[in-house]
Write a structure and sequence with these properties.
Blueprint lengths: L1 H15 L24 H4 L15 E9 L3 E2 L2 E8 L14 E11 L13 E6 L5 E4 L2 E4 L2 E2 L8 E3 L9 H17 L4 E3 L10 E4 L9 E7 L9 E4 L5 E7 L4 E4 L3 E3 L15 E4 L6 E4 L3 E2 L1 E11 L3 E2 L2 E8 L3 E2 L15 E11 L12 E7 L2 E8 L7 E9 L10 E5 L6 E6 L2 E6 L4 E11 L12 E7 L2 E8 L7 E9 L10 E6 L5 E6 L2 E6 L4 E11 L12 E7 L2 E8 L7 E9 L10 E5 L6 E6 L2 E6 L14 H4 L3 E3 L9 E5 L5 E2 L11 H8 L25 H22 L5 H17 L5
Parallel strand pairs: 1-3, 1-22, 2-23, 3-4, 4-5, 5-9, 10-12, 11-13, 12-14, 13-16, 14-17, 15-18, 17-20, 18-20, 19-21, 20-22, 21-23, 24-30, 31-37, 38-44
Antiparallel strand pairs: 6-7, 7-8, 24-27, 25-26, 25-28, 29-30, 31-34, 32-33, 32-35, 36-37, 38-41, 39-40, 39-42, 43-44, 45-46, 46-47
Helix pairs in contact: 6-7
């Protein structure tokens, strides 16, 4: 009563919410519930179903994909389903008590799929773990489609990683079965030439009466490509396997199959389903283009059905474009001639440090190979003692011709990270730890920011694994100037489970550098400290030390970034130059920045003003030590006379007064200059006449210069003083220029020196 009330309440809620009567598309989340766990297909089918196994319990058994565009009267087991029409075995005789459908993935279903439960039928509809499911009005909702013929109790959903049917394993076994059947001794062989009358083609097996044995018949594929019926008479209901022999990857069946006067129809009675068509494992595409009866075994083929077909359809992909009917085959077995069997046992051994990294799977698949092809498979797990043992029984010892089979074992899917080896029936898995790591680092340069241009364009880094070179990599500066490197995909552990030790080093350290390594940082330090010399001089502007004011030496101080770095005493050398030289001073600091060097004078001599330009120190004698010069001194270039001055009495010793290359007025007397010396300046300030030395011509060598105290000397002195005073007077009153006065004085001086009388 409670269950019915709950369902009624749910129905009312859905109806009042988003359910619209007559539609069949629902969001799975409208009413979430957890379907039952389906378990394994062998929990539902535990009997002996012959060589085809559980595949014989489904109308369509597809490894990959099934597309239904026509009505399918039968159940489906497929990895992926697109159903544009309904499917499910119709209840006809009421003799089929249980039906299973299995769909791992789907993007298309219709609401009328499957047949409702009855008192004679129970449904089990199994879907994959990734398909969204729900409930609406007591019916299951699968991927948004409400299945109106099923109740929520009919829906099962597998858990992630646990498939209801392992298609890979099943089809590996079915492929082996297909090949085994083709290797048996056929009781008959047919080709197209065996049917001369195309309209009366018949295979009569009336004389085959052993119902306990499976009979194989080899049939050339060309027999099925003819567009006339092929009749098969099997009155004794012997299990028949037709091995279709073909040499092409594609086959189109155009022959209608008539079997024991049976017609294609819906049924739940499969007792007479004794025909299997074995197309082997080489066929890639099979098209059934004529009405067909019997199970189709083409495990590696894509099968397209465009005409009615009764029987099981076993293939890689299945496309149904015409109505088909379920007709489950009776169990088939290998011919009795091969019934002498072998027992094959073995063990799975793990070498993974007792599962140190928890990498072992819960189970593995061991394949028994018969003449190199899979004959049987077995799921193997650890027993109570931790051993992984397997055992195959009933393997035929010999084929139909009495030739012994060769059996070997192999592992189906080797677990990730393991390497397999097989010795007899012992399968060993050795773990190659796939855990990876990476190493990153950088190269640091301590070389004054490469201002000496000593860095190479690229360097080579080597990665060492436990001290041995494992990889090398060439690196260079990136866009931002950084030198970085990385090694990825490195194994973290060795075969013993010990972690590898990784270090880095540099190959061929550049010349001049010293390498140091700390972790993954490689530092190259330039070992040669760049040095330079600081040279300069001290210049004196003091009238060539006319006043004897220069010291014997001065101290020059060298500053590094504004701080005293060195000092040096400087004096005059043999050429009277005051040069200094600071040798081997460093160019850069530890960060590669160039040092700034300046110089200055330690103690500036008294009465001097000091100035610095670059590395030149200039000491200028203060003007207070020297008398003020005439104001007109700088007018000399504008007022110098050009021409000659006659300073002799007889006119034969004329001297020229001209500008020389330095712009100074010079006269013809050797060593005479119009540049005013300090003494001249003093003379100008206090009317005193300075005596310039002159060169006397040869004619005048005999003449004596006037002596002090002589009448001529006194007269010359008085005249000089007088003229000097007159000159100063004239200059200060703007009457004449300094140069004009100097010319006058020169004339007087020349005259006095030559003995001329002025007055």
């Amino acid at each position: 009563m409670w269950k019915k009330s709950t369902k009624l309440l749910v129905a009312l809620v859905i109806f009042g919410g988003s359910f619209i009567s007559g539609t069949s598309s629902f969001a799975a989340e409208e009413l979430a519930y957890v379907p039952k766990n389906p378990g394994n297909v062998y929990d539902d089918f535990s009997g002996n179903y012959g060589l085809l196994g559980v595949a014989s319990k489904f109308h369509i058994f597809a490894k990959d994909k099934t597309i239904l565009t026509a009505h399918v009267n039968g159940n489906v087991a497929t990895k992926a389903l697109e159903a544009y029409n309904n499917f499910g075995t119709d209840i006809v005789e009421g003799t089929l008590p249980f039906e299973v459908n299995y769909i791992q993935e789907t993007n298309q279903l219709i609401a009328s799929s499957e047949i409702s439960d009855t008192s004679t039928r129970t449904d089990k509809f199994v879907v994959g773990s990734e398909i969204p499911v729900g409930e609406a009005d007591g019916h299951p909702v699968v991927n948004g489609t409400r299945l109106d013929h099923l109740s929520v109790d009919d829906l099962y959903q597998e858990k992630e990683g646990n498939h209801y049917i392992d298609f890979e394993a099943e089809f590996a076994r079915l492929g082996s079965v297909a090949e085994q059947l083709r290797q048996t001794s056929a009781i008959k062989n047919y080709t197209a030439a065996d049917f001369p009358d195309r309209n009366k083609r018949e295979i009569d097996l009336t004389d085959v009466k052993d119902k306990t044995n499976t009979v194989t018949i080899n049939l050339d594929a060309a027999v099925l490509t003819q567009d006339t019926p092929l009749t098969i008479k099997n009155p004794n209901d012997v299990n028949l396997v037709f091995n279709v022999m073909h040499g092409s990857n594609d086959l189109a069946v155009q022959s209608q199959i008539h079997y024991n006067d049976r017609v294609n129809h819906e049924t739940e009675n499969f007792d007479d389903a004794n025909v299997v068509w074995n197309f082997g494992t080489e066929l890639a595409h099979l098209a059934v283009q004529a009405p067909f009866q019997g199970t189709v075994l083409a495990p590696n083929a894509s099968i397209t059905v465009t005409q009615n077909l009764d029987g099981s359809i076993i293939g890689k992909d299945v496309s149904i474009q015409a109505s088909t009917n379920r007709w489950d085959p009776n169990p088939i077995a290998l011919p009795k001639a091969t019934e002498q069997t072998l027992e094959i046992s073995g063990e799975k051994v793990w070498q993974d440090l007792d599962n140190k990294w928890d990498t072992r799977p819960e189970s593995i698949t061991v394949n028994l190979l018969q003449n190199g092809k899979v004959y049987d498979t077995q799921e193997v797990r650890a027993n109570n003692d931790g051993k992984w043992l397997y055992h195959f029984s009933g393997a035929p010892k010999m084929d139909a011709n009495g030739k012994a089979y060769s059996y070997t074992v192999d592992e189906g899917n080797v677990p990730e990270g393991y390497v397999k080896s097989v010795n007899g029936t012992t399968i060993t898995n050795t773990y190659q730890n796939s855990t990876q790591t990476s190493i990153s680092g950088k190269k640091v340069w301590q070389d004054f920011d490469n201002q000496l241009n000593t860095r190479p364009d690229a360097i080579t880094i080597e990665l060492l694994q436990n001290g041995e070179v494992y990889q090398t990599k060439q690196i260079q500066a990136g866009e931002n100037g950084d030198w970085t490197f990385s090694f990825s995909g490195l194994p973290k552990y060795d075969a013993s489970g010990e972690a590898y030790s990784y270090t880095v080093d540099e190959v061929d350290v550049p010349e001049g550098y010293v390498e140091s390594v700390e972790g993954t940082t490689i530092t190259n330090t330039y070992a040669k400290k760049p040095l330079k010399n600081i040279q300069g001089d001290v210049i004196w502007k003091d009238k060539n030390d006319e006043y004897d004011t220069r010291p014997d030496n001065v101290k020059v101080i060298l500053f590094q970034n504004g701080k005293v770095f060195r000092a040096q005493e400087v004096d005059a050398d043999l050429d009277s130059d005051w040069d200094f030289d600071f040798t081997d001073v460093p160019q850069f600091d530890a960060d590669g920045k160039p040092y700034v060097y300046t110089v200055n004078e330690g103690n500036v001599p008294a009465d001097y003003d000091s100035s610095v330009s670059g590395y030149t120190i200039t000491n200028v004698l203060e003007e207070t030590v020297m008398p003020e010069p005439d104001d007109q001194e700088d007018d000399l270039p504008d007022s110098r006379p050009d021409g000659s001055v006659d300073g002799t009495t007889d006119g034969d010793s004329n001297r020229q007064i001209n500008e020389n290359a330095e712009g100074r007025l010079v006269n013809g007397f050797s060593g005479y200059s119009n540049e005013r010396s300090a003494v001249e300046k003093i003379t100008a300030a206090s009317p005193r006449v300075t005596t310039n030395s002159v060169a006397v011509s040869p004619q005048e060598k005999t003449k004596q210069l006037p002596k002090t105290g002589d009448a001529d000397g006194k007269r010359s002195l008085l005249v000089g003083i007088l003229l000097a005073g007159i000159g100063v007077f004239l200059e200060r009153n703007g009457i004449s220029s300094y140069s004009e006065n100097r010319i006058l004085i020169w004339k007087v001086e020349i005259g006095l020196l030559s003995g001329n009388k002025f007055g």
